[in-house]
Amino acid sequence: MRLFIGIPLASAVVHELAALSARLQSPNDGLRWSREEGWHITLQFLGQTSDEQYACVTAALRGIRHTPFEIYLDPPGFFDRSGVFFAGVRVSAELIALQQLVTAATKRCGFVPEDRPYHPHITLARDKGGHQGARKLKSRVPAGVQFSHFSAREFLLYQSFPGPGGSRYEVRERFEL
What we know:
Layout (H helix, E strand, L loop, with lengths): L1 E7 L2 H14 L6 E3 L6 E9 L2 H12 L6 E3 L1 E7 L4 E6 L3 H15 L13 E7 L4 H7 L11 E3 L1 E8 L6 E9 L1
Antiparallel strand pairs: 1-3, 1-9, 2-7, 4-8, 5-6, 6-7, 9-10
């Protein structure tokens, strides 16, 4: 099974992101827009996971102790090299601490943390091919977009099911903060 760990979004934030996405989408824009039911803040991507690793990960994640904390979103942005349009997530000491607790817990189960800096975000769209769609979209994103903040009260273990129209996600486990 293909797994990752993430923080679910509050419904108010999902509605705001959905309204922005709906305003920006256009036919044949060259982008594959993410489905709102799949929006989350990734803490760690695990990838292919055996049944033994799954048991280890769930036990390790149950041991994490962290208090709920506020999450603030930053304005939308682009990863130019990969053609991704996203809503930024403000890095906080609490978010970094949770992400580090998660990667330390999964390391005991054979997962290696990424060596690049953690850049939390919510993927809204990606180029279907080339980077023309994202380049054209840049000029249409309104300035000064702001989103609500919300309290992170749990993190989830998701299973990913890749498909031609994008991945579908199912929640496998919930871990309260």
